[in-house]
Automatic annotation (TrEMBL):
<keyword id="KW-0813">Transport</keyword>
<keyword id="KW-0732">Signal</keyword>
<dbReference type="InterPro" id="IPR012910">
    <property type="entry name" value="Plug_dom"/>
</dbReference>
<dbReference type="GO" id="GO:0015344">
    <property type="term" value="F:siderophore uptake transmembrane transporter activity"/>
</dbReference>
<keyword id="KW-1134">Transmembrane beta strand</keyword>
<dbReference type="InterPro" id="IPR036942">
    <property type="entry name" value="Beta-barrel_TonB_sf"/>
</dbReference>
<feature type="domain" description="TonB-dependent receptor plug">
    <location>
        <begin position="41"/>
        <end position="144"/>
    </location>
</feature>
<comment type="similarity">
    <text>Belongs to the TonB-dependent receptor family.</text>
</comment>
<keyword id="KW-0472">Membrane</keyword>
<dbReference type="Pfam" id="PF00593">
    <property type="entry name" value="TonB_dep_Rec_b-barrel"/>
</dbReference>
<protein>
    <submittedName>
        <fullName>Ligand-gated channel protein</fullName>
    </submittedName>
</protein>
<dbReference type="InterPro" id="IPR000531">
    <property type="entry name" value="Beta-barrel_TonB"/>
</dbReference>
<feature type="signal peptide">
    <location>
        <begin position="1"/>
        <end position="19"/>
    </location>
</feature>
<dbReference type="GO" id="GO:0009279">
    <property type="term" value="C:cell outer membrane"/>
</dbReference>
<keyword id="KW-0798">TonB box</keyword>
<dbReference type="Pfam" id="PF07715">
    <property type="entry name" value="Plug"/>
</dbReference>
<dbReference type="InterPro" id="IPR037066">
    <property type="entry name" value="Plug_dom_sf"/>
</dbReference>
Amino acid sequence: MFKPSLTLIALVVSAPSLANDAPNDMERIIVSGSRVIESIDEVPASITVISRKQIEDHLKVNPELQSLLAQMVPGLAPDTGSSSNTGQSLRGRAPLVMIDGVPQSTPLRNGSLGVKTIDPSALARIEVIKGATSVYGNGASGGIINYITKQATAQDTHEGQVSLSSRFSAVKLEESAGARISAAINGKVENFDYLVTASYEENGVQRDAEGDILGLQYGLSDAETQNYFTKLGYDFDQEKRLQFSYNYFSSQQKTDLADVPGDINEGVKTYAIHVPEALQKRGKPQGPDGNENITLKYTDSNIFANSEMTLDVYTQDIENVFFFSPNLANPDEGYDGGQSIIRSEKRGARAMFNTAVDFDGVEATFIYGIDALKDTTSQPLVDGRVWVPEMEMDSLAGFLQTKWVISDDVIIKAGVRRESIDLSVDDYETLKLCRSETQCSVPLQVTGDTIDYDATTYNIAIKYNWSDSFSPFFNYSQGSDIADIGRLLRAATVDDIGLIQTEASIIDNYEVGFTSLFDQVRLEVAAYRSTSELGTTNSFNEVTGVYEPVRAPQEIWGYEGLVDYRISETLNVVATYSYVEGKNTEADVYLGSRQISPPKATANVNWKPSDTLSLIVSYLYVGDRKRFSPNADGDYVGDQGPISSYNIVNLSGQYQFAENWNAFMGVENLFNSDYYPARAQSYTYGGYNIKGLGTTATLGVTYSF
């Protein structure tokens, strides 16, 4: 059972999207961190808003969303350089990824593929809420990444855009050239509006700084990605609207290559080569295989006095295919390996009301409603074996969030969420898995059950807009998190699900900070602390060769800073720094890199010398983190490898050479740094020791109509 406890969270609003906006234009940026649109000056919450322009600028360098997020979001771990965001935590914990508020992550069996669920060309902006929150329910122990999709903007007409580009290695061109096309059209006819976006991309092979093909585990070489998104709306009148949206996303690696395994302890990289068909990458193509989202939303902005109502229902079907692994072998049954699939189906319904009341100069907002969700998730193997049995979660939650604006300067927020969860699992047998003929796990019959969770979580925050030069904030909040239950079930060592440590966690967050605006300079500083009585880490069992989950109390702490300096009308610089650290407080040992990332600094220089020309230089610094010692054999294990610092510089630009035409270019890793990404250095698991991308160029053109 959950035990109600209190937590503090204070949140800073980061908006490095001011490259083309005056700092005072911050007042016009709106976010939906509280599930309603509000001014950013009234949000005592840790939110980074990534604008549409920033998304478009980064697309010129790299089309991957996790690369964009790592560059723009303080507190988010560095880019992994792959299709997987495992190890890319947010303030040391897992974020919940959403599209327009609909969950995309699979918390019951977190395969860390949720970040890659939609093409950036379909997005209007991205909102990142840092620190555990229960606003949207289970899975947001580290915060929320909410992809906000585009809306139709044309009035009584039609508008559109088509973009063509190619991305290739500048180190060794052979087989590296890929192609990408994206298109969008929107319009409005009387009360009906529509938006349609589509994108298709085929990658060539990706090469490191030495010209070798990057290893294939979660790789992007030869990946085929397609995304189709549509949004249809009908305004019954000025107050009532019905909206339908559909998203289809697929990204799979279809390659004829095979890996040459390396060893990070020996400093030897994993890379890919062409081999005869019998030795090629086995199994189905890895990656999301046709993930779908459908949402129907009805809004009435005046359902009763000063009140707005939003009703929505949604469905989501996910099928994420993983790589073929020899660690899933069972020689007794004739299996020399295996390939797993995370299947997840979500069916949800939500009713939310937003009521505004003026109490003699005190503006109050009450946000309240009910959320219902059925989440059915499993992890079978392609060959028919079941690694994680089907888990069925039914959740019903009621919530109340309030905001009080006093004298336009003091903002107080407080809220409560009560959630009831039933998690059902039938009887099952754990898999016998062998790393060698003599190193195997022992299969176990486990009796299923229905486990009931009840959680009451609270939040309270205050922000004082004392002056432009000093706006302090303090925040306290809780997040409720059912840990990665699938990982616990597949590694069960007891014969009854009721005896497995499946208890959920309450994450307590504390944060304090301030924002300051001096003429052309904006500063943001925040420090935070996060605690939980039942965190989840992995421990390697040297007898069975299996990584087993360990539940233990955790404490995570850190700080972040941002400087936004408009040097002139044509030149703007945004720099960030973030530091996070954490411990298992029961054993008094540091947490591994699956949760804790090394220090990170970024800088983005935006120069726009004319209305038709712009250039951007972006810089990423990843620092050292060396908290662990090798074992008796001199090897590092698990996620405890030492991380050494590295630096990456990117360049992008665009030029409008005709009224409706733009040419653009981008160069990733401009100086061809030869490095291992942070995850590749710290993860000693086989196949992760893959070097970072060498110098890679993008050339393209966009036509607007």
